[in-house]
Amino acid sequence: MKFDIAIVGGGPAGLSAAYSASKHGAKVILIEKDPSFGHNVRTSGVTWIKEIEKFEISREYYNPIKNFSFVSPTNQIMISGNFNSACVLDVRKTYQYLASRAASEGSTLLVKSQVIDVKKNLQGHSSILKVNSPSGPLDVEATLIIDASGFTSFVSRKLGYVESWKRYGIGAEYECYCDNVDNETLCLMVGQIYSEAGYAWVFPLSKNRLRIGVGIGKPNSSTDPLVKLNQIMKNRLPPLDTLGKIQPLELHYGMIPNEGLRTTSVFDGLIMVGDTVGQANPLVLEGIRYAIEFGRLAGRVGAESLQYNSSRDSLLPYEVANKNLLEKKIKSALKVQSRWLGLSDSEWHKEIEIIKELSIDEFLDFIKSDFTYSKMAKLAFNHPKMMVKQLFNLVLKK
Ligand SMILES: Cc1cc2nc3c(=O)[nH]c(=O)nc-3n(C[C@H](O)[C@H](O)[C@H](O)COP(=O)(O)OP(=O)(O)OC[C@H]3O[C@@H](n4cnc5c(N)ncnc54)[C@H](O)[C@@H]3O)c2cc1C
Fold first, then answer.
1. Which SUPFAM superfamilies does this one have (predicted)?
2. Is 297 in the pocket of ligand 1 (CB under 6 A)?
3. DSSP code per residue over 122-187
4. Residue 280 CB less than 6 A away from ligand 1
5. What are the structural domains of the chain?
6. Separation of 18 CA from ligand 1 center, angstroms?
7. Which of 146, 268, 285, 323 is deepest in the core (most CB within 10 A)?
8. Quick one: pLDDT at residue 227?
9. In angstroms, rounded to a whole number, what is the distance separating the alpha carbons of residues 324 and 85?
């Protein structure tokens, strides 16, 4: 089978790349190993309404969030919003929608089809993917491969361009029925009883449904997040003690890279996108909107590169945007994250007090890692307390 562009992975990055490449005239195939798009949920699905609506993902795909609460073993705060800024996605429904949009633009989509090998065909300026599909083994030849295989970076590793991630987060999460859900408030829980290197969360989906999870940074801690999550559930640690009956309905498990962008995102005949190249904001493990944005960009730049056999040079507009838009932001987020990974319970108590000082707009900039120089300098100026200054100086420091 011959295509212009073959996309490996049907998460938000791959599906958005397929949509955009087809829209820009390329003949596209996308290959996903799971039996359906969004079948294995590997994310908690929190994102930002303003950003996600730019991708035509509307109210029917998410539960809106107004307030943000932080819980530590000895402290608890609530930052109340004036409007719905964040949301929790119905992940399966959203990914199915992204898949339908790619199909409607003309992409061929294969499910339960795993790419097991890749070879470069140097004479023909193409690559050949070996695929195990429900209709038997397939050879798929394409001028450009978009590697959207997520954390495993399957194609790029097979071709020897990158190694496995060394620093990463692992998350385990139950999606549950609950009696009493405040569906406008999301909660982050910090401190040793919740996670030795990371945080736990309660993210509401509706009045009676929410996601309760734990994320743990590797190699900082060797604990399995599922063990920690089961302890939190069993002991009904706050805020679970206020939820009434909690009945798990689904178990989600996932991994996310946590070391910044890879050195490069393009090679002759290959673009890396989403978690494959480390585009998520490491501060709060937030990658869906970046996967969609850069998936769309990869699809467009990829389609335009075909006339140049998708040489590395023709793919550079993608690389430049990737670096310019993400590199500084991710580096600053990593600095705050590295501070957070080392905090003791009493230090978390104080850190939460710092966060309490912020206005809702300042808090949103901070949690979204919108660390522009002017915003951060203004923050340091507006908050004369030493502790607040310390946090923002950390971000500003080169
Ligand atoms: C615990 C956890 C919580 C998170 N919470 C949030 C959150 O609240 N908000 C947010 O924005 N982000 C969150 N993220 C991050 C977000 O999920 C990722 O950044 C995003 O999913 C990246 O999208 P992607 O398309 O690059 O990769 P993925 O979503 O991982 O998709 C990759 C796809 O490739 C397929 N695949 C892999 N190898 C092959 C192969 N060989 N052949 C065929 N198919 C293959 C996989 O089955 C998968 O469907 C979280 C991540 C984790 C781990």
1. FAD/NAD(P)-binding domain
2. no
3. TTTTEEEEEEEETTEEEEEEEEEEEE--GGG-HHHHHTTS----SSEEEEEEEEEEESS--TTEEE
4. yes
5. 2-43+91-165+262-325 (3.50.50.60), 64-89+167-257 (3.30.9.10), 332-396 (no CATH)
6. 16
7. 146
8. 98
9. 25
Q: How many residues does the chain have?
A: 398
Helix 386-396 to helix 345-356 angle, to the nearest 10 degrees? 90
Residue 240: is it exposed, middle or buried by C-beta count within 10 angstroms (0-12/13-18/19+)?
Answer: buried
Give me 260's structure tokens: 């910044």
Degrees to nearest 5, angle at CA 81 with 76 and 84: 125
3-class SS at 338?
helix
For the CA of 172, the closest atom of ligand 1 is 1
Instruction: Report the percentage of the chain scoring pLDDT > 70.
Output: 96
CA distance 214 to 232: 9
Long-range contact set of residues 78-83: C-beta below 8 Å, sequence gap at least 24: 78/185, 79/355, 79/356, 79/358, 79/360, 79/363, 80/360, 81/360, 82/360
Q: What SS3 state is found at 272? A: strand
CB 352 within 8 A of CB 77: yes
Q: Is the CB of 271 under 6 A from ligand 1?
A: no
30-44, 186-200, 242-256, 329-343: least confident range: 329-343
Distance in Å, CA 212 to ligand 1 centroid: 18
CB 397 within 8 A of CB 389: no
> Would you say residue 395 has pLDDT above 70?
no
Which residue's CA is minimally distant from atom 17 of ligand 1? 43
For the chain, give the percent of residues with pLDDT over 90.
82
**Assessment of whether the complete model's pTM goes beyond 0.85:** yes
Average pLDDT, the chain: 94
